[in-house]
Amino acid sequence: MTYIAATIFVIALAVIALEWVHRTKVALAGAGLMVLLGVLDEEQSIEAVDWATLGLLTGMMILVGLTERTGVFTYVALRVAQLSGRSPLRLVFLLAGVTGLFSAFLDNLTAILLVVPITLLLADVLGISAIPLVLVEVIASNIGGTATLIGDPPNIMIGSHVAELTFVDFIVNLAPVALVTLALVTAILYFAFRSQLGISPERAAEVARLDPARDIRESRYVRRSVAVLLGTIVAFFFHATLQLEPAVVALAGATLLLLVAGDDVEDALERVEWSTIFFFLGLFVMVGGLEARGVIAEVADLLTEVTGGSRTGEAMAILWGSAGGSALVDNIPFTAAMIPVVDQLGESGPFDDANWWALALGACFGGNATMIAAAANVAAAGVLERSGQPISFGRFLVVGAPVAVVSLSVATLYLLLFQL
Amino acid sequence: MSPLRQTRLVEASVVHTATFLEAARALFGTGISAIAVLDRDRRVVGLFTDDDLLGGVFPAYLRELRHTAFLREEPDALAARLEETGGDPVERHMREPLTVEVDASTLHVAERFLHSPSGALAVVENERFLGMVDEVDFVESLLSELGIERTDRPASR
To answer: Collapsing DSSP states into helix, strand and coil, what is residue A405?
Structure first.
């Protein structure tokens, strides 16, 4: 059974990485096989699902989806472009900053779906290529999302799984390194792309003449939606004091917004990306199968053996290993598989958060390496393709892989200096 | 008798080798919201609708945007884009065909219209295209069968 469980998981990861079949279908088929072949019984498969992660994701999708209707995110993105005037330096830093901020407090996949379409329009009006700007945004979204518990799917999974880690813990331990990395990487990307970002005075004037507030004025629910969204984000800071799971905070915020500004429940629920929710569900069952059959324990033992049980060695192996794994197969399944491994490593002693930060940094920063490494990258590539400006795997790799190496080097320094 | 045999069918089609501009002209000429794209054997391989026309004339990223009230009029941009896409093969801009058999029941045709965003269906017999049926014509034919005649349309402004 151990081999069956490992084989199902490895094949599923390979098919997800090769994008032969939609990843949700693969995860559900893998989960189904785990149950049908007796790796897990039905009860175990239900227990394997991390409902807190699914609750947090669903709540945030409803909250952001309903707030998006108001046009407030478009307003912010447009104002940022206007503030940059004719300066490509300001444009790149402001777009990276706003994408990083949206990613940290909404989640990076949502942030990309909010900012990339408006960036395509801006690039068109400014008469420059959209692809450099979108690449900056994708990379900023993966780095910005690293800063909080809700910013990137790997962090959502870690935060929902490890009760000892609060929203504030994530910010205290990850936001500073995310901020430094974002500034450094954005500067590098600016120098790499600056020759493609020349803006003429006429085009800049055209952007300046746009009226960003017009959509907001047409919306009925701006104040209520923004108030509930901001209130929910503030509540995340106090979830430990309130003794509430982050998922409960997100779902409470979503429910409140549905009550005060949701005209139509069906419409609100359509904003939930159900394929992502079912992808997670299938993954949790597959990883549950690995756990039940001892595969996770064996990987943890192997890791201890390789690193000689050294705390620093373990953290470095987790950081670089999870980055490499994420680059190859997507950081969501890789993190799902690594969480029980890190759990096992920490079982013998008192709670030590260093390995969790190593996993978060490795999976999130590793998400920049390839086009398939993070959901935000796939989403941005999809928008670009539908808009007639496709980006190839190779072009992404040329930019993403060096960025991932730089980011991981910063993370290594940070872990060595402040966590180990 | 099937309702479609009593409803006006419009010979609104282009061959699949037609260009975007030829399809756009054909669509204008018929006055309905979709035309059929046919292969050499008059089988329907796609529909070219008002939305596809808009999609071809305006930038592709427009579909990804939800808020655009802030935009200003660009008088020359439209003509420039039409020049860009005008020579594209229509196959690049068409969508999956929605067809209905000429002998279909009233309920089935109504169901197809309810699930057709373009408001027009391709009517076929033995897989061969007979013509397009417009939702307004279909409803008018039903109402007239029920003895309800339409009033004169108000003059447009």
So the answer is: helix
